[in-house]
Specification:
binds zinc ion; alpha/beta; Metallo-beta-lactamase, Chain A
Length: 291
């Protein structure tokens, strides 16, 4: 028992999206990003919303919930949500789990493509409601504050109904600082380049670690230091944070988990002799892998 018990990680598919490639690559020229992610005729690229499930003893911790299907059909089309069903719930069922089995949900931030999946599928004429009836919901205080008081620049990325539902649940755990860890096996820290208070969660297994970087590095193309998203609030800060975190993972040999990469769930990071960072040992399927 305790810290000797094995820890298992699984990549859990959520609803996928097709989003404008230009917005996903900030100021990178199309000639560059279109080689990494070939766009369709509407300039959109495929993106995953992948969650990480961490299991040990009787704990089942879900890192994020993807975009889900809370949007009414009109908005679902606008935001390029591909599937009609709540894919995350189906993926959990394939692992033999229901929403009641999840003990904790860690939300790196409250943008709808990371937190929308904690809401039940849209039903005409019914208000939004929370899934995961037994889970505690972890969010940083800074990220929650941002969601309750967004800036005009990112207001459209939040779900106004979500924050009151989380508060009313009585199961919301706001994390004040990096020492404020109420989850064994996890080391949580924040970054601020993508959005204020983005939680970075490092899962510590017996032999290996997995870092859930969320939108700090949404997929393999963004491992390259100068590449940022148009959605990043403070791109230069993000690049500085990314250099530190990925440099650390390269030195320690840990896994970096990608939520939006359409193909690869996690990779290790290699620093080349000339200082470039590369995603290596790509893992496409991760299912109850002991770490
Ligand atoms: Zn985001």
């Amino acid at each position: 028992m305790g810290l000797d018990a094995p820890v298992y990680v699984s990549a859990v598919a959520g609803n996928s999206q097709r989003l404008d490639g230009g917005a996903m690559f900030g100021n990178a020229p199309r000639a560059l990003w279109s080689r990494w992610c070939p766009p369709d005729e509407e300039n959109r690229i495929p993106l995953a919303c992948r969650a990480l499930l961490v299991e040990w003893e009787d704990r089942r911790v879900l890192l994020e919930a993807g975009i889900g299907t809370f949007f009414p059909p009109r908005l679902r089309a606008r935001y390029g949500v591909v599937e009609q069903e709540h894919v995350l719930l189906r993926s959990l069922a394939e692992l033999g789990l229901s929403e009641e089995d999840i003990t904790d949900v860690i939300l790196s931030h409250l943008h709808f493509d990371h937190a929308g999946g904690v809401l039940a599928p849209h039903e005409e004429g019914r208000p939004p409601r929370l899934l995961f009836p037994r889970a505690r919901f972890f969010v940083s205080e800074a990220a929650f504050e941002r969601a309750e008081h967004p800036h005009p620049r990112d207001r459209a990325s939040f779900i106004p109904e979500l924050q009151p539902l989380l508060r009313q649940s009585g199961r919301l755990c706001l994390l004040r600082d990096e020492q404020d860890v109420r989850l064994p096996r996890f080391r949580l820290r924040t970054s601020h380049g993508h959005t204020p208070g983005l939680l970075l969660s490092e899962v510590q297994g017996q032999h290996e670690t997995v870092l859930f970087v969320s939108d700090l590095v949404p997929g393999r193309p963004w491992v390259h230091l100068p590449i940022t998203m148009g959605y990043d609030r403070f791109p230069e800060l993000l690049i500085d944070e990314k250099a530190v975190i990925l440099g650390e993972m390269a030195a320690r040999g840990g896994w970096v988990f990608y939520t939006h990469d359409p193909e690869v769930a996690m990779s290790r990071i290699l620093r080349t002799e000339d200082g470039r960072l590369l995603a290596v040992e790509p893992q496409t399927e991760v299912r109850r892998r002991p770490i």
